[in-house]
From TrEMBL:
<keyword id="KW-0863">Zinc-finger</keyword>
<dbReference type="InterPro" id="IPR011011">
    <property type="entry name" value="Znf_FYVE_PHD"/>
</dbReference>
<dbReference type="InterPro" id="IPR000306">
    <property type="entry name" value="Znf_FYVE"/>
</dbReference>
<feature type="compositionally biased region" description="Basic and acidic residues">
    <location>
        <begin position="354"/>
        <end position="374"/>
    </location>
</feature>
<dbReference type="InterPro" id="IPR013087">
    <property type="entry name" value="Znf_C2H2_type"/>
</dbReference>
<keyword id="KW-0479">Metal-binding</keyword>
<protein>
    <recommendedName>
        <fullName>Rabenosyn-5</fullName>
    </recommendedName>
</protein>
<dbReference type="InterPro" id="IPR021565">
    <property type="entry name" value="Rbsn_Rab-bd"/>
</dbReference>
<dbReference type="Pfam" id="PF11464">
    <property type="entry name" value="Rbsn"/>
</dbReference>
<dbReference type="InterPro" id="IPR036531">
    <property type="entry name" value="Rbsn_Rab-bd_sf"/>
</dbReference>
<dbReference type="InterPro" id="IPR017455">
    <property type="entry name" value="Znf_FYVE-rel"/>
</dbReference>
<keyword id="KW-0175">Coiled coil</keyword>
<feature type="domain" description="FYVE-type">
    <location>
        <begin position="148"/>
        <end position="224"/>
    </location>
</feature>
<feature type="region of interest" description="Disordered">
    <location>
        <begin position="354"/>
        <end position="393"/>
    </location>
</feature>
<feature type="domain" description="C2H2-type">
    <location>
        <begin position="13"/>
        <end position="41"/>
    </location>
</feature>
<feature type="coiled-coil region">
    <location>
        <begin position="404"/>
        <end position="436"/>
    </location>
</feature>
<dbReference type="Pfam" id="PF01363">
    <property type="entry name" value="FYVE"/>
</dbReference>
Length: 439
Protein backbone atom coordinates (compact mmCIF):
# COMPACT_ATOMS: atom_id res chain seq x y z
CA UNK A 1 0.00 0.00 0.00
CA UNK A 2 1.28 3.50 -0.86
CA UNK A 3 -0.08 6.99 -0.34
CA UNK A 4 0.19 9.41 -3.27
CA UNK A 5 -1.30 12.33 -1.42
CA UNK A 6 -3.54 13.04 1.53
CA UNK A 7 -6.70 12.03 -0.35
CA UNK A 8 -5.74 9.16 -2.70
CA UNK A 9 -4.76 5.73 -1.33
CA UNK A 10 -3.07 3.26 -3.69
CA UNK A 11 -3.00 -0.51 -3.16
CA UNK A 12 -1.24 -3.42 -4.85
CA UNK A 13 2.34 -4.31 -5.84
CA UNK A 14 3.53 -0.70 -6.17
CA UNK A 15 6.98 0.44 -7.11
CA UNK A 16 8.36 2.50 -4.19
CA UNK A 17 10.04 4.89 -6.65
CA UNK A 18 7.52 5.56 -9.43
CA UNK A 19 4.39 4.26 -7.67
CA UNK A 20 3.49 2.03 -10.66
CA UNK A 21 1.17 -0.97 -9.98
CA UNK A 22 2.95 -4.09 -11.29
CA UNK A 23 0.15 -6.59 -10.36
CA UNK A 24 2.56 -9.28 -9.03
CA UNK A 25 5.80 -9.64 -7.08
CA UNK A 26 7.75 -11.02 -10.06
CA UNK A 27 6.75 -8.09 -12.28
CA UNK A 28 7.66 -5.66 -9.54
CA UNK A 29 11.11 -7.25 -9.19
CA UNK A 30 11.82 -7.21 -12.95
CA UNK A 31 10.56 -3.62 -13.20
CA UNK A 32 12.86 -2.50 -10.42
CA UNK A 33 15.87 -4.30 -11.96
CA UNK A 34 15.36 -2.74 -15.39
CA UNK A 35 14.35 0.82 -14.55
CA UNK A 36 15.84 1.45 -11.11
CA UNK A 37 19.24 -0.22 -11.21
CA UNK A 38 20.69 2.42 -8.97
CA UNK A 39 18.45 1.34 -6.12
CA UNK A 40 19.80 -2.22 -5.77
CA UNK A 41 19.84 -2.02 -1.99
CA UNK A 42 16.12 -1.39 -1.94
CA UNK A 43 15.59 -4.31 -4.37
CA UNK A 44 17.56 -6.63 -2.13
CA UNK A 45 15.53 -5.61 0.90
CA UNK A 46 12.29 -6.17 -1.06
CA UNK A 47 13.37 -9.70 -2.00
CA UNK A 48 14.22 -10.42 1.61
CA UNK A 49 10.85 -9.12 2.76
CA UNK A 50 8.95 -11.19 0.16
CA UNK A 51 10.88 -14.34 1.02
CA UNK A 52 10.39 -13.97 4.74
CA UNK A 53 6.73 -13.13 4.27
CA UNK A 54 6.28 -16.29 2.20
CA UNK A 55 7.82 -18.41 4.93
CA UNK A 56 5.60 -16.83 7.57
CA UNK A 57 2.50 -17.45 5.42
CA UNK A 58 3.55 -21.09 5.09
CA UNK A 59 3.50 -21.33 8.93
CA UNK A 60 7.25 -21.31 9.34
CA UNK A 61 8.04 -21.52 13.06
CA UNK A 62 11.01 -19.19 12.91
CA UNK A 63 10.67 -16.43 15.49
CA UNK A 64 13.65 -14.54 14.12
CA UNK A 65 12.05 -14.32 10.67
CA UNK A 66 8.89 -12.90 12.20
CA UNK A 67 10.84 -10.28 14.13
CA UNK A 68 12.88 -9.35 11.03
CA UNK A 69 9.74 -9.04 8.94
CA UNK A 70 8.10 -6.84 11.56
CA UNK A 71 11.16 -4.59 11.66
CA UNK A 72 11.28 -4.41 7.85
CA UNK A 73 7.70 -3.25 7.69
CA UNK A 74 8.28 -0.98 10.68
CA UNK A 75 5.52 -2.52 12.74
CA UNK A 76 5.50 -2.09 16.44
CA UNK A 77 3.31 -4.62 18.18
CA UNK A 78 2.98 -2.43 21.24
CA UNK A 79 1.26 0.24 19.17
CA UNK A 80 -1.48 -2.09 17.90
CA UNK A 81 -2.07 -4.52 20.75
CA UNK A 82 -3.19 -3.58 24.18
CA UNK A 83 -3.17 -5.81 27.24
CA UNK A 84 -6.55 -7.35 28.00
CA UNK A 85 -8.20 -6.12 31.19
CA UNK A 86 -10.75 -8.08 33.15
CA UNK A 87 -14.22 -6.78 32.36
CA UNK A 88 -16.60 -6.30 35.24
CA UNK A 89 -20.09 -7.80 35.00
CA UNK A 90 -22.68 -5.11 34.41
CA UNK A 91 -26.40 -5.04 35.01
CA UNK A 92 -28.30 -8.12 33.70
CA UNK A 93 -31.98 -8.43 32.99
CA UNK A 94 -34.05 -11.55 32.21
CA UNK A 95 -36.54 -11.27 29.34
CA UNK A 96 -38.03 -14.74 29.83
CA UNK A 97 -41.23 -13.50 31.45
CA UNK A 98 -41.74 -10.95 28.70
CA UNK A 99 -41.22 -13.55 25.97
CA UNK A 100 -43.63 -15.94 27.69
CA UNK A 101 -46.27 -13.24 27.94
CA UNK A 102 -45.94 -12.36 24.26
CA UNK A 103 -46.06 -16.02 23.25
CA UNK A 104 -49.06 -16.77 25.46
CA UNK A 105 -51.09 -13.88 24.06
CA UNK A 106 -50.21 -14.91 20.52
CA UNK A 107 -51.09 -18.57 21.11
CA UNK A 108 -54.30 -17.58 22.85
CA UNK A 109 -55.33 -15.42 19.93
CA UNK A 110 -54.69 -18.24 17.46
CA UNK A 111 -56.46 -20.76 19.72
CA UNK A 112 -59.57 -18.58 20.01
CA UNK A 113 -59.63 -17.97 16.27
CA UNK A 114 -59.13 -21.67 15.49
CA UNK A 115 -61.90 -22.70 17.90
CA UNK A 116 -64.31 -20.30 16.21
CA UNK A 117 -63.44 -21.77 12.83
CA UNK A 118 -63.97 -25.31 14.15
CA UNK A 119 -67.41 -24.39 15.49
CA UNK A 120 -68.37 -22.96 12.10
CA UNK A 121 -66.91 -25.97 10.33
CA UNK A 122 -68.93 -28.30 12.55
CA UNK A 123 -72.14 -26.50 11.68
CA UNK A 124 -71.31 -26.53 7.99
CA UNK A 125 -70.44 -30.21 7.51
CA UNK A 126 -72.94 -31.79 9.93
CA UNK A 127 -76.17 -30.69 8.25
CA UNK A 128 -74.96 -29.74 4.79
CA UNK A 129 -77.69 -30.37 2.17
CA UNK A 130 -76.91 -32.73 -0.67
CA UNK A 131 -78.61 -30.50 -3.23
CA UNK A 132 -76.03 -28.05 -4.69
CA UNK A 133 -78.74 -25.42 -5.25
CA UNK A 134 -79.54 -25.17 -1.52
CA UNK A 135 -75.94 -25.52 -0.41
CA UNK A 136 -74.90 -21.89 -1.05
CA UNK A 137 -77.89 -20.53 0.84
CA UNK A 138 -77.14 -22.87 3.76
CA UNK A 139 -73.49 -21.78 3.85
CA UNK A 140 -74.51 -18.10 3.92
CA UNK A 141 -76.85 -18.76 6.83
CA UNK A 142 -74.08 -20.37 8.88
CA UNK A 143 -71.35 -17.80 8.06
CA UNK A 144 -72.50 -14.35 6.81
CA UNK A 145 -70.65 -13.22 3.70
CA UNK A 146 -69.06 -9.80 3.40
CA UNK A 147 -70.63 -7.31 1.02
CA UNK A 148 -68.35 -7.12 -1.99
CA UNK A 149 -70.08 -4.33 -3.92
CA UNK A 150 -67.28 -1.88 -3.14
CA UNK A 151 -64.43 -4.39 -3.45
CA UNK A 152 -62.73 -4.15 -6.84
CA UNK A 153 -59.47 -6.00 -6.14
CA UNK A 154 -58.70 -9.37 -4.62
CA UNK A 155 -57.25 -8.71 -1.14
CA UNK A 156 -54.73 -11.54 -1.58
CA UNK A 157 -53.30 -11.11 -5.09
CA UNK A 158 -54.51 -7.50 -5.75
CA UNK A 159 -55.90 -8.47 -9.17
CA UNK A 160 -59.02 -6.72 -10.46
CA UNK A 161 -62.36 -8.53 -10.54
CA UNK A 162 -64.06 -8.76 -13.95
CA UNK A 163 -66.20 -11.11 -16.00
CA UNK A 164 -63.52 -13.80 -16.06
CA UNK A 165 -62.29 -13.21 -12.48
CA UNK A 166 -65.38 -13.50 -10.31
CA UNK A 167 -65.74 -12.77 -6.61
CA UNK A 168 -65.91 -15.68 -4.18
CA UNK A 169 -66.28 -15.98 -0.42
CA UNK A 170 -64.48 -18.03 2.22
CA UNK A 171 -66.95 -20.43 3.84
CA UNK A 172 -65.43 -20.00 7.31
CA UNK A 173 -64.75 -16.27 7.64
CA UNK A 174 -66.89 -14.84 4.82
CA UNK A 175 -64.05 -12.79 3.29
CA UNK A 176 -63.80 -12.05 -0.43
CA UNK A 177 -61.21 -13.65 -2.70
CA UNK A 178 -60.76 -14.81 -6.29
CA UNK A 179 -60.79 -18.37 -7.55
CA UNK A 180 -56.99 -18.54 -7.96
CA UNK A 181 -56.51 -17.61 -4.30
CA UNK A 182 -59.10 -20.16 -3.10
CA UNK A 183 -58.11 -23.37 -1.31
CA UNK A 184 -60.56 -26.28 -1.14
CA UNK A 185 -60.88 -28.53 1.92
CA UNK A 186 -62.20 -32.04 1.31
CA UNK A 187 -65.51 -32.70 3.10
CA UNK A 188 -64.36 -36.08 4.43
CA UNK A 189 -61.25 -34.50 5.91
CA UNK A 190 -63.35 -31.70 7.38
CA UNK A 191 -65.64 -34.26 9.05
CA UNK A 192 -62.66 -36.14 10.47
CA UNK A 193 -61.26 -32.88 11.91
CA UNK A 194 -64.56 -32.09 13.60
CA UNK A 195 -65.03 -35.70 14.78
CA UNK A 196 -61.62 -37.37 15.36
CA UNK A 197 -63.28 -40.76 16.01
CA UNK A 198 -64.64 -40.82 12.46
CA UNK A 199 -62.64 -43.15 10.18
CA UNK A 200 -60.79 -41.29 7.42
CA UNK A 201 -61.36 -42.26 3.81
CA UNK A 202 -58.61 -42.18 1.22
CA UNK A 203 -58.82 -39.21 -1.13
CA UNK A 204 -58.93 -40.51 -4.69
CA UNK A 205 -60.27 -37.56 -6.66
CA UNK A 206 -59.28 -33.93 -6.99
CA UNK A 207 -60.86 -31.60 -4.45
CA UNK A 208 -63.00 -28.84 -5.97
CA UNK A 209 -66.02 -26.74 -5.04
CA UNK A 210 -68.35 -29.72 -5.59
CA UNK A 211 -66.76 -32.04 -3.03
CA UNK A 212 -64.96 -29.48 -0.87
CA UNK A 213 -65.28 -26.22 1.03
CA UNK A 214 -63.86 -23.03 -0.47
CA UNK A 215 -61.52 -21.41 2.06
CA UNK A 216 -59.07 -18.54 2.14
CA UNK A 217 -55.43 -19.34 2.73
CA UNK A 218 -55.47 -18.05 6.31
CA UNK A 219 -58.42 -20.22 7.40
CA UNK A 220 -57.04 -23.23 5.57
CA UNK A 221 -53.67 -22.92 7.34
CA UNK A 222 -55.38 -22.76 10.75
CA UNK A 223 -57.50 -25.83 9.98
CA UNK A 224 -54.48 -27.69 8.61
CA UNK A 225 -52.52 -26.83 11.76
CA UNK A 226 -55.31 -28.25 13.94
CA UNK A 227 -55.30 -31.41 11.80
CA UNK A 228 -51.53 -31.81 12.29
CA UNK A 229 -51.95 -31.35 16.04
CA UNK A 230 -54.57 -34.12 16.09
CA UNK A 231 -52.36 -36.45 14.06
CA UNK A 232 -49.34 -35.81 16.30
CA UNK A 233 -51.47 -36.36 19.38
CA UNK A 234 -52.78 -39.67 18.09
CA UNK A 235 -49.46 -40.79 16.62
CA UNK A 236 -47.72 -43.63 18.42
CA UNK A 237 -44.14 -43.36 19.55
CA UNK A 238 -41.46 -45.83 18.50
CA UNK A 239 -41.62 -47.45 21.93
CA UNK A 240 -45.40 -47.93 21.81
CA UNK A 241 -45.22 -49.25 18.25
CA UNK A 242 -42.61 -51.85 19.22
CA UNK A 243 -44.71 -52.90 22.21
CA UNK A 244 -47.84 -53.29 20.06
CA UNK A 245 -45.91 -55.42 17.57
CA UNK A 246 -44.60 -57.59 20.40
CA UNK A 247 -48.12 -58.06 21.80
CA UNK A 248 -49.36 -58.99 18.32
CA UNK A 249 -46.70 -61.71 18.04
CA UNK A 250 -47.69 -63.00 21.48
CA UNK A 251 -51.33 -63.21 20.41
CA UNK A 252 -50.27 -65.19 17.34
CA UNK A 253 -48.12 -67.51 19.46
CA UNK A 254 -50.94 -68.59 21.81
CA UNK A 255 -53.06 -70.47 19.22
CA UNK A 256 -49.88 -71.78 17.57
CA UNK A 257 -48.73 -73.36 20.85
CA UNK A 258 -52.21 -74.83 21.46
CA UNK A 259 -52.24 -76.31 17.95
CA UNK A 260 -48.73 -77.74 18.46
CA UNK A 261 -49.82 -79.51 21.66
CA UNK A 262 -52.89 -80.85 19.91
CA UNK A 263 -50.82 -82.14 16.98
CA UNK A 264 -48.34 -83.81 19.35
CA UNK A 265 -51.15 -85.54 21.21
CA UNK A 266 -52.56 -86.70 17.90
CA UNK A 267 -49.22 -88.29 17.01
CA UNK A 268 -48.94 -89.98 20.43
CA UNK A 269 -52.49 -91.36 19.96
CA UNK A 270 -51.51 -92.86 16.61
CA UNK A 271 -53.90 -90.75 14.56
CA UNK A 272 -53.13 -90.05 10.92
CA UNK A 273 -54.53 -86.52 10.87
CA UNK A 274 -51.05 -85.01 11.16
CA UNK A 275 -47.57 -86.27 10.40
CA UNK A 276 -44.16 -85.47 11.87
CA UNK A 277 -43.29 -82.89 9.20
CA UNK A 278 -46.47 -80.95 10.02
CA UNK A 279 -45.55 -80.75 13.70
CA UNK A 280 -41.95 -79.73 12.89
CA UNK A 281 -43.27 -76.94 10.64
CA UNK A 282 -45.49 -75.67 13.45
CA UNK A 283 -42.54 -75.82 15.86
CA UNK A 284 -40.47 -73.74 13.43
CA UNK A 285 -43.25 -71.18 13.21
CA UNK A 286 -43.34 -70.90 17.01
CA UNK A 287 -39.55 -70.46 17.03
CA UNK A 288 -39.78 -67.55 14.59
CA UNK A 289 -42.45 -65.90 16.73
CA UNK A 290 -40.23 -66.32 19.80
CA UNK A 291 -37.31 -64.76 17.96
CA UNK A 292 -39.43 -61.78 16.91
CA UNK A 293 -40.68 -61.26 20.48
CA UNK A 294 -37.12 -61.41 21.81
CA UNK A 295 -35.85 -58.83 19.27
CA UNK A 296 -38.68 -56.39 20.00
CA UNK A 297 -38.26 -56.72 23.78
CA UNK A 298 -34.54 -55.95 23.40
CA UNK A 299 -35.40 -52.86 21.36
CA UNK A 300 -37.79 -51.73 24.09
CA UNK A 301 -35.28 -52.14 26.91
CA UNK A 302 -32.58 -50.38 24.84
CA UNK A 303 -34.77 -47.31 24.28
CA UNK A 304 -33.14 -44.23 25.92
CA UNK A 305 -34.50 -43.53 29.40
CA UNK A 306 -33.19 -41.94 32.57
CA UNK A 307 -31.98 -44.61 35.03
CA UNK A 308 -34.30 -45.12 37.97
CA UNK A 309 -37.29 -43.43 36.35
CA UNK A 310 -40.69 -45.00 35.92
CA UNK A 311 -40.16 -45.41 32.18
CA UNK A 312 -36.86 -47.25 32.68
CA UNK A 313 -38.47 -49.60 35.23
CA UNK A 314 -41.39 -50.23 32.87
CA UNK A 315 -39.05 -51.07 29.98
CA UNK A 316 -37.10 -53.51 32.16
CA UNK A 317 -40.34 -55.13 33.32
CA UNK A 318 -41.48 -55.59 29.72
CA UNK A 319 -38.18 -57.25 28.85
CA UNK A 320 -38.35 -59.58 31.85
CA UNK A 321 -41.97 -60.52 31.12
CA UNK A 322 -41.14 -61.24 27.47
CA UNK A 323 -38.14 -63.38 28.43
CA UNK A 324 -40.25 -65.34 30.92
CA UNK A 325 -43.00 -65.86 28.33
CA UNK A 326 -40.52 -67.11 25.74
CA UNK A 327 -38.81 -69.45 28.19
CA UNK A 328 -41.90 -70.89 29.87
CA UNK A 329 -44.46 -70.95 27.04
CA UNK A 330 -42.61 -71.03 23.72
CA UNK A 331 -39.33 -72.88 24.32
CA UNK A 332 -40.58 -75.50 26.80
CA UNK A 333 -42.68 -77.32 24.21
CA UNK A 334 -43.59 -80.95 24.39
CA UNK A 335 -40.98 -83.33 22.99
CA UNK A 336 -41.93 -84.97 19.72
CA UNK A 337 -42.08 -88.77 19.32
CA UNK A 338 -39.70 -90.52 16.97
CA UNK A 339 -40.70 -92.05 13.65
CA UNK A 340 -40.42 -95.55 15.13
CA UNK A 341 -42.71 -94.65 18.04
CA UNK A 342 -45.26 -93.13 15.68
CA UNK A 343 -45.22 -96.18 13.42
CA UNK A 344 -45.61 -98.53 16.38
CA UNK A 345 -48.55 -96.61 17.81
CA UNK A 346 -50.22 -96.41 14.41
CA UNK A 347 -49.68 -100.13 13.82
CA UNK A 348 -51.33 -100.93 17.13
CA UNK A 349 -54.16 -98.57 16.33
CA UNK A 350 -54.57 -100.13 12.90
CA UNK A 351 -54.69 -103.65 14.39
CA UNK A 352 -57.36 -102.56 16.87
CA UNK A 353 -59.35 -101.03 14.04
CA UNK A 354 -59.01 -104.20 11.97
CA UNK A 355 -60.19 -106.35 14.87
CA UNK A 356 -63.15 -104.03 15.33
CA UNK A 357 -63.98 -104.24 11.62
CA UNK A 358 -63.72 -108.04 11.74
CA UNK A 359 -66.07 -108.15 14.67
CA UNK A 360 -68.53 -105.95 12.79
CA UNK A 361 -68.33 -108.20 9.77
CA UNK A 362 -68.88 -111.35 11.81
CA UNK A 363 -71.85 -109.77 13.55
CA UNK A 364 -73.29 -108.73 10.17
CA UNK A 365 -72.76 -112.21 8.80
CA UNK A 366 -74.51 -113.82 11.75
CA UNK A 367 -77.45 -111.49 11.38
CA UNK A 368 -77.67 -112.18 7.64
CA UNK A 369 -77.49 -115.95 8.22
CA UNK A 370 -80.26 -115.79 10.76
CA UNK A 371 -82.34 -113.73 8.40
CA UNK A 372 -81.74 -115.69 5.21
CA UNK A 373 -80.88 -119.17 6.44
CA UNK A 374 -80.06 -121.50 3.57
CA UNK A 375 -80.17 -118.78 0.80
CA UNK A 376 -77.41 -118.27 -1.74
CA UNK A 377 -75.17 -115.26 -1.22
CA UNK A 378 -76.08 -112.29 -3.32
CA UNK A 379 -73.78 -111.25 -6.12
CA UNK A 380 -74.55 -107.56 -5.89
CA UNK A 381 -71.27 -106.92 -4.08
CA UNK A 382 -69.44 -108.14 -7.17
CA UNK A 383 -71.22 -105.55 -9.30
CA UNK A 384 -70.49 -102.95 -6.67
CA UNK A 385 -66.81 -103.84 -6.70
CA UNK A 386 -66.73 -103.70 -10.48
CA UNK A 387 -68.21 -100.20 -10.45
CA UNK A 388 -66.21 -99.04 -7.43
CA UNK A 389 -64.43 -96.35 -9.39
CA UNK A 390 -67.74 -94.63 -10.13
CA UNK A 391 -68.60 -94.25 -6.47
CA UNK A 392 -69.13 -90.52 -5.65
CA UNK A 393 -67.71 -91.07 -2.15
CA UNK A 394 -64.33 -91.96 -3.62
CA UNK A 395 -64.39 -88.81 -5.76
CA UNK A 396 -65.20 -86.66 -2.72
CA UNK A 397 -62.42 -88.31 -0.71
CA UNK A 398 -59.89 -87.55 -3.47
CA UNK A 399 -60.99 -83.90 -3.56
CA UNK A 400 -60.64 -83.58 0.22
CA UNK A 401 -57.15 -85.14 0.07
CA UNK A 402 -56.16 -82.40 -2.38
CA UNK A 403 -57.48 -79.71 -0.03
CA UNK A 404 -55.57 -81.28 2.87
CA UNK A 405 -52.34 -81.17 0.87
CA UNK A 406 -52.76 -77.47 0.09
CA UNK A 407 -53.65 -76.62 3.70
CA UNK A 408 -50.56 -78.45 4.99
CA UNK A 409 -48.36 -76.55 2.56
CA UNK A 410 -49.66 -73.21 3.90
CA UNK A 411 -49.49 -74.37 7.58
CA UNK A 412 -53.27 -74.03 8.04
CA UNK A 413 -53.53 -76.94 10.42
CA UNK A 414 -56.93 -75.97 11.82
CA UNK A 415 -58.31 -76.48 8.34
CA UNK A 416 -56.35 -79.75 8.05
CA UNK A 417 -58.04 -81.06 11.16
CA UNK A 418 -61.53 -80.27 9.85
CA UNK A 419 -60.80 -81.82 6.46
CA UNK A 420 -59.31 -84.94 8.04
CA UNK A 421 -62.46 -85.35 10.15
CA UNK A 422 -64.61 -85.11 7.02
CA UNK A 423 -62.39 -87.60 5.25
CA UNK A 424 -62.77 -90.08 8.12
CA UNK A 425 -66.54 -89.76 8.01
CA UNK A 426 -66.53 -90.40 4.26
CA UNK A 427 -64.30 -93.45 4.72
CA UNK A 428 -66.63 -94.77 7.40
CA UNK A 429 -69.64 -94.24 5.14
CA UNK A 430 -67.80 -95.95 2.27
CA UNK A 431 -67.02 -99.02 4.39
CA UNK A 432 -70.63 -99.20 5.56
CA UNK A 433 -71.78 -99.15 1.95
CA UNK A 434 -69.42 -102.01 1.11
CA UNK A 435 -70.64 -104.04 4.07
CA UNK A 436 -74.26 -103.44 3.14
CA UNK A 437 -73.60 -104.45 -0.47
CA UNK A 438 -71.92 -107.68 0.67
CA UNK A 439 -74.84 -108.50 2.88
Amino acid sequence: MATANDEEVLEGFLCPICKADLKSASQLTSHFESLHQEEQDVLKSLKDIFGKAKKIILNTDDADLRETFDRALKLNSQEYYYPLEEQTVGVTRSSTDYFKAVRSSRLERYAIETNKLLIRLDKLVCNMPSDPNHRKQYEQEIVPWLDGSSVNLCPNCAKAFNLTRRKHHCRLCGSILCHDCSVFLDLNIAKSIVDPSRPQTSQTEEVNEKNGLRLCEHCYNLIELRKQVQENRNAKTVLVTAYDQMRSLMEQAKPAVAMYEKMCQSLFDGETTYNLSDVNAMRGRIGKLAEGIDILSKQIVAFPAEPGTRQAKLQNSIRQAASHYIKEDLLSLRKLPTEAQIEEVRRQRYERAQRQIQKERERTERERERRDEGAEPSGSWVDSASHDDDNPLLEQMNIIRGYIKEARKELRFEEVEILETNLKELKKEYHLQKLSNKS
